Amino acid sequence: MEDQTTAETGPVDNAWAIKIPKFTPEDNPHGLLEESKFATLFPKYREQYLKECWPLVQKVLKEHHIIAELDLIEGSLTVKTTKKTWDPYIIIKARDFMKLLSRSVPFEQASRVLDDEIGCDIIKINSFVRKKETFLKRRQRLIGPNGVTLKSIELLTECYVLVQGNTVSAVGPYKGLIQVRRIVEDTMKNIHPMYNIKSLMIKRELMKDPRLKNESWDRFLPTFKSKNVPRKQPKQTVKKKPYTPFPPPQPESKIDQQLASGEYFLKDEQKRAKRRHEKEEKQLQNKKVREEKRKKDYIPPQEKVKDSVPVSNEPTVDINKFKAKMKKASKQQKLVTKS
């Protein structure tokens, strides 16, 4: 007998391999003393889906003697125990069931959480990153192209994973939920999910080898090295002023400025007249600027004049040569007529 008790209470090699005995109504024949109740809010876009699947939700929870209520006015899901409820932890499971339904998890996957060996985890991811652009990039990295990365995480961890808004919902065995949480948190901390996926695949293969049971697996697993990526420098760099031990001179107050200009001693009427005059001058200046802008459109552009050849008044033809030429031509014509 002593050997059996020590074997049961002693150290365990693999705690995940231990089978938890099923909790039955015979273990708690007297039921629960008090009524427990939980309410969860759901978004407006889930209203139509919840209406359709609500009869199925009530049917599943009725098997565990849990009452479920859907309030469409307040937008809340409520679960509470009855006198027939015998499982003290089923109300927590029912609460998680309602949370998953409100986080866009389909009914078929969310109803699995009511089993003893299945749990759920809703991971908030909006607090890891400040910038929205970085958050969207890392969340997309978790999903992968055409959802390939998310599918590989589901296959390795045996969990259903849904990325919705600022949260990641996971449903599956407790061992897989721990792995999913680590992958999600590392991804939002700028560690690519492929490192964790690769290490999970390697661990799965190493578990098959009994020789490596008592050895460290660190030499087989991939290591992540953080790189200092050069960031974009701001365009406008502020030049630092030369250091001086003396503080800057104190700026003059409004009263000091008025005393220096003599405005302090003016009467209220004179002050008003001065302000009015300054305002009118400012208006005139603005009016001139506006008129100049308007006139710019009507000013013709300067035409480019080509360099013309200078015209001289002096005759370019030599008159004496022209006379001699004409005489010669007339003589030749006379000779032609005589002949």
From TrEMBL:
Keywords: Coiled coil, Developmental protein, Nucleus, Ribonucleoprotein, Ribosome biogenesis, RNA-binding, rRNA processing. SUPFAM superfamilies: Eukaryotic type KH-domain (KH-domain type I) (SSF54791). One of its GO terms (cellular component) is small-subunit processome. Residues 278-307 have a biased composition (Basic and acidic residues). Required for 40S ribosome biogenesis. Involved in nucleolar processing of pre-18S ribosomal RNA and ribosome assembly. Binds to RNA. Required for female germline development, cell viability during eye development and for survival of dividing cells and epithelial cells during early wing disk development. Residues 228-242, 322-331 have a biased composition (Basic residues). The keyword Coiled coil applies. The lineage of its organism: Eukaryota, Metazoa, Ecdysozoa, Arthropoda, Hexapoda. One of its GO terms (molecular function) is RNA binding. One of its GO terms (biological process) is rRNA processing. Monomer. Component of the ribosomal small subunit (SSU) processome. InterPro entries: KH_dom (IPR004087), KH_dom_type_1_sf (IPR036612), KRR1-like_KH1 (IPR041174), KRR1-like_KH1_euk (IPR048550), KRR1-like_KH2 (IPR048548), KRR1-like_KH2_euk (IPR048549), rRNA_assembly_KRR1 (IPR024166). Residues 223-339 are annotated as: Disordered. It comes from the Eukaryota. PANTHER family: HIV-1 REV BINDING PROTEIN 2, 3 (PTHR12581), KRR1 SMALL SUBUNIT PROCESSOME COMPONENT HOMOLOG (PTHR12581:SF0). Residues 117-189 form the K Homology domain. The keyword rRNA-binding does not apply. CDD domains: KH-I_KRR1_rpt1, KH-I_KRR1_rpt2. Pfam families: KH_KRR1_1st, KH_KRR1_2nd. This is KRR1 small subunit processome component.
